Amino acid sequence: MDTEGTPARPDPPRVAWRRQMRERVLAEARALAAEGGWDRVRVADLALRAEVSRPSIYKEFGDRAGIGRALVQRETEAFLLGLAAVLDRRRDDVGAAVEAGVAHALAEAGDNPFIDAVLGAARGGTDALLPFLTSRPEPVFSNARHLLADWLGEVAPGAPADRREEAADLAVRLTLSHMLLPSPRPAETPARVARAVRAVLGT
Question: Which of 6, 10, 50, 113 would staple 24 via disulfide (CB 3.0–4.6 Å)?
Answer without folding.
Answer: 50
